Amino acid sequence: MNPDFENKNKNENINHKKQKFHKISGLFFALFILIIGTVSFVTEDTHFSENENRVLAQTPRLDFDNILSGRFSKKFEKYSTDQMPWRTLWVEMKSRSDLMLGKREINEVFRGSEGFLFEKPVTPDSLSIDEKTLAINAFASRYKTIKTYFVLVPNASDILIQHLPENAPFINQKDYIDSFYSALNNSVSKINAHEALSETSDSTMFYRTDHHWTTDGAYSVFKKLAQAMNLDTSDEDYKKLCVSHDFYGTLASKTGYYKDYGDTITVYVPNSQDNQYVVNYVEEKSKSPSLYDTSKLDTKNKYEIFMRGNHPLVKIRTTAKNERSLLIIKDSYANCFIPFLTAHFSRITVVDPRYYYEDIYELIETEQVSHMLYLYNANTFFGDKFLESVLNNE
Asked: Is residue 122 within 8 Å of residue 177, measured between CB atoms?
């Protein structure tokens, strides 16, 4: 047989197989896109990613100005990425492949020593900080009779420096917090959370696999706040109760790094039975005699044992024998902190600006607020885009 003819047949067969492969691949890709598009169309948008601890992009507004300026296409691209069906699965698959390649930074999370995971610190935007400062100061000036306190909590990366991996980016949150505090109205009492967390055992202040502080960390800062508020805690006595030994938090989810043992979740149970209360989850139209929901221990995000997670508005009525009414403006760091306050205020109103869209002025009047507490972790606060809108009643 002619060698040229034989080679020609081989090349034709190869080309035919390539074409067939490309057609099949194209068919599968088109089918994949069709499935993804269909699922996206029929499922509701997810508002908040527990794995990534952030609000996800929602459907952008379609109008002429947005289209003409190009903002619509940018927002739609972000929306498509955030609302990708089975997003959590894709994120975890990517994380695990990066971990297998030996990367120390995965999805903006750093793997440190002794099993500690650290989220990448947020670099404060000076303009955003100025806007928040103006809003807080204006609010304090408007309500001069309300005693106001601010607790800005540094994250694990600022307290547990010795556990950070080599060459990990470090932002001195303490300096930023001090600078922010110095710009606040003198009528606002600033609580030094950094000092409180640094005074105690570092290994128990933060979870190793989650971005939150532990109940131990919250209690150490509560004692500082109690001094500033002149709260009588002399008779308070707690029993520490471990409710979980296998908590793997948001940072483990982001990285796919699950060590041999999980974090321990502890709650502080008062030995006295005098402190009773009713918790009203207003938007959910649900009431509970407890700030703890043990059913959450059977879910992935066990941190939601505290206050069932985040809610726009929560109203707590206690048996405390006083007329003090506390308004808390907060992020999720406050969820394990609030139980320490129930013995000292007859009314506690909790607002999470990420989800709250009602009239804050009317709420203050209705609840006859006498005290106000801002409680945030530094990363959330420095990246926050919701607080000014709530304080300005927009």
From this structure: no
Query: What type of residue sits at position 283?
Result: E
Please report, for the chain, the start and end positions of each structural domain, with discontinuous segments joined by +: 3-82, 106-391
Beta-strand runs (E) in the chain: 48-49, 54-55, 105-106, 109-111, 117-119, 147-153, 188-191, 238-247, 263-270, 277-281, 286-288, 313-318, 325-330, 347-351, 371-377
* Cα 361 to Cα 134: distance, rounded to the nearest angstrom: 17
Residue 20 CA to residue 393 CA, distance in Å, equals 61
CB atoms within 10 A of CB 392: 13
Which of 135-149, 228-242, 266-280 holds the top average pLDDT?
Answer: 135-149
pLDDT at 1: 52
- pLDDT tens for each residue of 223-232: 999 999 999 9
Q: Which residues, other chains included, contact 280 with Cβ-Cβ below 8 Å and sequence gap of 6+?
A: 286, 287, 314, 315, 316, 317
Evaluated on CA atoms 374, 367, 305, 203, the torsion sign reads positive
Residue in 164, 176, 210 with CA at minimum distance from that of residue 53: 210
